[in-house]
Amino acid sequence: MAPAPPPISFPWLAHGSPLIGQFARKAADKGSRHGRELSAMICWISAIEAAKRSKGLSDAGAAALNQVADANNAGGLFPADSCMIRTQAGWLAIPEGLLVGALARPYGNQPGPRRLSHVMISLGNGLVVGSNNMVLGKPSSWYIFNLDEVMTWAGNAAYYEGRDFEVRVRPIEDRKAGSICP
Q: Using CA atoms, how far apart are residues 29 and 140, in angstroms rounded to an integer?
């Protein structure tokens, strides 16, 4: 019998924020005022707002992130040096409280720059929470789900209904995205 492979570890992902993750999880509770308010927002705005409400992100940090968040410029929130998750095992190793982006090719997997299709907050163990989750077949409300329930992993990308997504992760706290990558 071959020895078990070593566990996957991403020391650079130790920058997750339990404070942000705990707030985001609690906001998903049925009847939560925060959850209702976050549900009405565009996905990246709701993720940034949840981080701010948790006190894990300053007002200035939230303003800076909101300024660069744009569907047509995925690199604003997730620059090329942000951390790309390439496998299911890598995905399951992400701790709570990080910003997660699903960057997609144009519909039909046409060539061209990736678009910022969806933004969520990681909750650890493969779980995410966010609003306007319809791009991944989930409810539009502030909702917790397991990304593995909807995506399959192959060739350094995740796929949903045949659409190719790059999954990128960065800290939400006030710091440059690439600073956590090896």
A: 15
> 108: left (phi > 0), else alpha (psi -120 to 50), else beta?
left
Among residues 124, 59, 72, 128, the alpha carbon closest in space to that of 100 is found at 128
Q: Express each pLDDT in 13-69 by its tens digit.
A: 445 688 899 999 999 999 999 999 999 999 999 999 999 999 989 899 899 999 999
Distance CA 114, CA 20 (A): 27
Residues in the chain: 182
The tokens describing 61, both together, are 């940090």
Residues whose CB is less than 8 angstroms from the CB of residue 47 and which lie 6 or more positions away in sequence, other chains included: 24, 99, 119, 120, 121, 130, 172
DSSP 99: E
What gap in Å lies between CA 28 and CA 38, rounded to an integer? 9
CA torsion, ordered 44, 46, 47, 51, to nearest 10 deg: 140
